[in-house]
Write a structure and sequence with these properties.
With 207 residues, the protein is α/β, with parallel strands linked by helices. The protein has 5 helices and 9 strands, in the order βαββαββαβαβββα. The N and C termini lie far apart (33 Å).
């Protein structure tokens, strides 16, 4: 989990979304920032330090295996109820594909976002052989969010590490990452699990 120099243009776009630097802010993992061409506004040890530089002082990191984390939850299990609706932003930069119980991880992330808050998800949707446990169908992730009362604000695809290229269709390249930011319109009292991704929901979004 990291922010790399090639992806900074997309982070800059995401940072422009209204409310992205709201508090409290939760990151999944402690992401380093690295690369050969890091601009001055990203020259920080990690994402948490970058957020603090933007005036976001209430930042917590969740990571079961990192002793530096503020929260040490296993995302294969439900998070404690006191974490529900607590965060204005939940940012997952490369965690979901490493969690075996994807349904539980998604449900916990959705529940931790407060009404009106944002959920950032950055994950693999094509290729990435031998990285993580899963590569996702992007329709599934869009449908999970829409079905659970989120509005999609930002959705892009890019190639991964070397020579980052923004692409319109994740099927046309290898090793593709999905970037999605969604706003929670209202609380989900019952987590809704889409069946085989509802084409009609996905198509409705892309009209």
């Amino acid at each position: 989990m990291a922010i790399i120099d090639k992806h900074i243009p997309l982070y800059r776009e995401i940072f422009q979304l209204p409310g992205f630097f709201s508090e409290p802010f939760l990151t999944l993992g402690l992401q380093a920032i690295y690369g050969n061409n890091i601009p001055d506004d990203f020259k920080f040890e990690g994402f948490k330090e970058l957020l603090i530089s933007k005036g976001v002082n209430d930042v917590k990191a969740l990571d079961l295996h990192d002793a530096r984390a503020d929260l040490r939850y296993d995302l294969n299990l439900p998070v404690p109820a006191e974490e529900h609706g607590r965060y204005s932003v939940v940012a997952d930069i490369g965690t979901l594909e490493h969690i075996f119980d994807v349904k539980q991880c998604l449900e916990s992330c959705i529940r931790m976002v407060k009404e009106g808050g944002l959920y950032l998800l950055h994950t693999n949707v094509n290729g990435h052989y031998n990285h993580g446990l899963y590569v996702f169908n992007p329709r599934l992730l869009v449908n999970v969010l829409i079905s659970n009362h989120f509005e999609i604000l930002y959705l892009k695809y890019s190639t991964a590490m070397i020579g980052m290229l923004e692409i319109p269709d994740p099927s046309i390249r290898h090793d593709v990452i999905m970037w999605i930011v969604a706003r929670k319109k209202r609380e989900c009292h019952r987590f809704i699990m889409p069946s085989d991704p509802h084409q009609e929901i996905y198509d409705e979004y892309y009209k």
